[in-house]
Every structure is written in C-alpha cells, then in structure tokens.
Amino acid sequence: MDSAEVFSLLRETSRTFSLSIEGLPASLKDEIAVSYLLFRVSDYLEDHETISPKRKIALLERWDEVLEDEAELKSFLNELDTIPHRPNDPEAEVAYRSGSLLMALKSFPQNATQTIHKRVRETTRGMAKWQAKGPRVEDEAEMDDYMHYVAGIVGYLVTDLFAQHSRGVARRRDTLMPLAREFGLALQTVNILRGLRKDYDRGWIFVPRTFCSSHGLTPSELFSPDARERALHVVEELVEKAERHLMSGVAYIRLIPRHLHRLRLACMWPLLFAAKTVAVSRNNPLVLSGEVKIGRDAVKKIMRDSAIWGWSNAWLSSYTRKLLTSSTI
Question: What is the mean pLDDT of residues 7-31?
Fold first, then answer.
C-alpha cells in the first residue's frame, strides 16, 4: 500500500484526524497515518454491533497474534469474512487491508516500527480485557482505565514518534508522557459524551455508576425522559472531567517547541475541536438522545485562527478557555 492509498483510506475513516495528520512533515505523517489505521482495526473489532463479546475477544486476540507474527494473517482475514458488515463500510475496509498496512509499516525505520507494534498491541489487549469485563463502569478510575487503553496509549505512541523525529521533543519526553495520556483521556471523554446514546443502544454505558448514583440515578436511567434534569447534571460531571483533561492537553502542546508549528497544529486541532464540542454539550439534551457535533464553519474558523496564532502558548490557553465556555467563537 503506497502513501496515496493510505491517506485515501484515512480520509474515508476520519476526516477530522486526516486534517491533522496530513499537515505533518512527510515521513512522520506516514508513520502516524498507518498507526491510526492499525488502531482502527482494533476499534472495528471492539465496536462491531452484531458479534458477541466472546467472539470479539477471540478476534482481538487473533489480531494481536497477527501483530506479533504475520503468519496468522490469512487465518485472521478468513475470520473477517464471517463477520457481517455494511456495503462500502470504510471500517471494514481498513480491517481487510490490515496486511497491506503491515507491509507499509515495514518501510519505516526500525524504532518507529517497533514503537507502533508495541502500542497497537497494548491497545488491542486492553480492548479484549474490557470486553471480558463487560459494559459496567463502576467509578472514574475504571473509566480512566478503559480510556487509557483506547486513547491514552495513542498519546504515548504519538509522543514517541514525535521524539524520534525531533530532538526538542525527545529532551522533554519524560515530562510529556503523563500529559500525553491525559490528552488521550481528554479526547476519549469527549468521544464518550458525543456517543452516549449510540453506545447505550449497543449495550454499553461508559458513564461511571458513581457519577449517576450521586444524582439518584442508575446508568440506564440516564436516558429516561423522566430523569432528564438529573441526567443533565451527570452530563455536566462528564463535561467538567473533559475540561480538566483538555487543559492537560494544552500543557502538552505548550511543551512542544514553538518552531515545530506543524506538530503543534496536528495536536491543536483535535483538542480545540473537542473543546468546542464540550461547550455545545453543556446543558444540551441532545447529548442524551442523539449526537452533538460542531459545524463546518466552526471547524474552519478554529483551523484558520490556530494556523495564524498557534505558535503562541498564551493564545492557545486563552483560546481553549474561550471555546470551553462559549457556544460561539
């Protein structure tokens, strides 16, 4: 699979992340694009709506075996053939092209290849662990554990790859790593906010039981029209949690040397989009009945403003707070 095919597949699966990744320096953007798509193979298996948790665990374990030893690839692809999927489903296409993605991975420097293998396998095994545990999240620590596997590890991966390409990042790696996890948790908390109803409809509620019980609710009662006011208080707790993690994401970006503007923007855009999503989620009943999204005009303005001012750490902090507290920008 050549670079053009990788980015075509990336755009089909995530327009938002493709915007960030395609702005990176050439060799780094290829590494992160392939990494992202390999993570999406794991996501496809974990999120599939029609297969049982037991089957998901088996498929995730088989995918982990493929990452360890590509001799298992043919068997893995044969198992994919037995999974129902929608026509022209880009998520399924990524999984079916996993062999080509692994071939592309071999073209990278050895340290990058080893890092990507390690992190994708950690995420895959973590997803299998959570499928075995089941759809009950008792408290915030458990929520963070789940989010660590699906997003915090991605923060580690990106930081490792940045450090391999920049001495300035490498010198700050030890300070960046805990913030990278927080950054990942920030984006995943916002994903959970956006997908509350969709996750519920497929049998999962990632809201901690303790968040609900403090407002006299069980997790399933979040979606009852009769409990809407109390449910919105629970949503506010998620909003506040997202805000805390997002400000750690700001601290992460502030540590990236300012002359690495393209790296900063690649991190900045998803963070700022998430901050805007948090603002429009606050006190919004649509969070519980559908999906909250930000408009294209907001996306374009955020990208335009950050391209001009994103070199400034003071501007980044101020702009993020503005997005978090206002439904308009």
Answer: 91
* 310 lies in some domain: yes
Q: Would you say residue 126 has pLDDT above 80?
A: yes
Residue 145 and residue 74 share a domain? no
Percent of the chain whose predicted confidence (pLDDT) is above 70? 99
> In three state form, how does the secondary structure of the chain look?
CCHHHHHHHHHHHCHHHHHHHCCCCHHHHHHHHHHHHHHHHHHHHHHCCCCCHHHHHHHHHHHHHHHHCHHHHHHHHHHHCCCCCCCCCHHHHHHHCHHHHHHHHCCCCHHHHHHHHHHHHHHHHHHHHHHHHCCCCCCHHHHHHHHHHHHHHHHHHHHHHHHHHCHHHHHCHHHHHHHHHHHHHHHHHHHHHHCHHHHHHCCCCCCCHHHHHCCCCCHHHHHCHHHHHHHHHHHHHHHHHHHHHHHHHHHHHHHCCCCCHHHHHHHHHHHHHHHHHHHHHCCCCHHHHCCCCCCHHHHHHHHHHHHHHCCCHHHHHHHHHHHHHCCCC
Evaluate whether residue 266 is within a structural domain: yes
Note the pLDDT of residue 229.
Answer: 94
Which tens digit of pLDDT belongs to each residue from 254-311?
Answer: 999 999 999 999 999 999 999 999 999 999 999 999 989 898 999 999 999 999 999 9
Structural domain contains residue 218: yes
Q: How many domains, in total, are found in the chain? A: 2
Let me know if residue 65 belongs to a domain.
Answer: yes
In this predicted structure, what is the pLDDT of residue 142? 96
